[in-house]
Write a structure and sequence with these properties.
The protein has 175 residues and is α+β, with helices and mostly antiparallel strands. The chain contains three helices and six strands, in the order αββαββββα.
Length: 175
């Protein structure tokens, strides 16, 4: 049985985004087929959490081949959606330095139901641990309607374009 949602669905208003796609692009570097957020709907700076969504369309790069005749959003892309949401929060609110925020790892990831074109994937993330300058850990959950479709924990680490600037602890955490 899934855990309770990180935040109440009552906080979500799809008609009143806090940050639009253009504003997300000011923080997140992903573009083209790797952009996995549509907008940010709620930010909790006191509790260090965030809610956003991805409108899943039939134009996604994976639709044709995963799986032909029954397109399922790949689990790795679901995880990328959560990482981009947590990464937006970490970069926007300066939890970590670096040129980018990268995956340091994931734990306890569970996929509970398929996500398909036409779904609106609501994603929640909440900071659970911060090692200043080194890593940020988040719990995350994804929903289609009221149903939790996936959940887990992730680690974000700072990445420098210049490898000489990367701290040894952060580089050792990269998967």
């Amino acid at each position: 049985m899934p855990a309770p949602s990180i935040y109440s669905m009552d906080l979500v208003d799809f008609d009143r985004p806090i940050f639009t796609l253009e504003q997300i692009r000011e923080i997140n570097p992903q573009r083209f087929e790797m952009e996995q957020l549509t907008s940010i709907l709620y930010v909790d700076t006191e509790g260090h959490g965030i809610i956003g969504y991805k409108q899943v369309t039939d134009q996604e790069f994976w639709v044709r081949g995963h799986m032909p005749g029954f397109p399922l959003m790949p689990g790795v892309i679901l995880c990328e959606c959560a990482a981009q949401l947590a990464g937006f929060y970490a970069r926007k609110y300066r939890l970590l330095d670096g040129d980018f925020l990268g995956f340091g790892g994931m734990n306890e990831v569970r996929f509970r139901a398929p996500v398909v074109p036409g779904d609106r994937l609501l994603i929640m993330a909440k900071l659970t641990r911060l090692r200043t300058g080194k890593r940020a850990e988040f719990d995350f959950q994804g929903f289609v309607g009221q149903k939790m479709v996936y959940s887990g924990q992730m680690i974000g680490v700072p990445i420098e374009k210049d490898p000489a600037k990367t701290t040894s602890d952060a580089s050792e955490s990269l998967v």
